[in-house]
Amino acid sequence: MDPAVPAAITPETFSFISLFLRADWVVKSVMIGLAVASLWSWTVIIDKFFRFSALNGQADRFENQVSSGRSLEDIAAEAGERPKHALPRMLQGALREWRDARGKGLSTDTQAAFLIQRIDRVLDTTIAREAQRVEDGLGSLAIVATASPFIGLFGTVWGIMNAFQEIAIQKNTNLSVVAPSIAEALFATAIGLVAAIPAYIAYNKFSTDASRYTGRLEGFADDLSTAIQRRLADRT
User: Fold this and answer.
1) In angstroms, rounded to a whole number, what is the distance separating the alpha carbons of residues 129 and 86?
2) Which regions span the lipid bilayer (predicted)?
């Protein structure tokens, strides 16, 4: 076949596999990198979806136990020695400080104030660690969401440059010469958007979920602090 004569264009010419195989190594690298980033972001998305569902479900059950009117000591004991959820850990930490202070005696208002401060520090530390744990992975989603479109755009620009190079080499502006290279370029942009859009949506959703969960822990900490203060008031 005369190389000056363009190959016939068929629907298979624009299939995803054909576009990938026909692309040069730079565009292929962009496509592969974006595909890996998309798979990674979906791994984080699925993990966060089930994790937040589990955390909120466990929090609902534990808060129902606390609001049932039972003794806080009994509820803390039922949670076990090393509970995985933050709420029972917060309860156990607050009660531990309460028992230690009560054993040493709480004869003055200053000692009671120091007890409240220690409990607040314990609760704040637990909340900070839990917030960091639930936000783990969101940074990856943010990177994929912001970088993928630009990486795809780089592949597009490179592909269009190849298209113009084909025109210059073959000295032919026929659509059959330009279309495949332009399709490869646009395919890189499409992959970038496919990777970026779910990551962007998931990042915003899970950031909101993390903030709500942290607020839930802070509300529980306030309730615990109030309960301890009420116990201190009853002792006077």
Assistant:
1) 9
2) 25-46, 138-161, 181-203
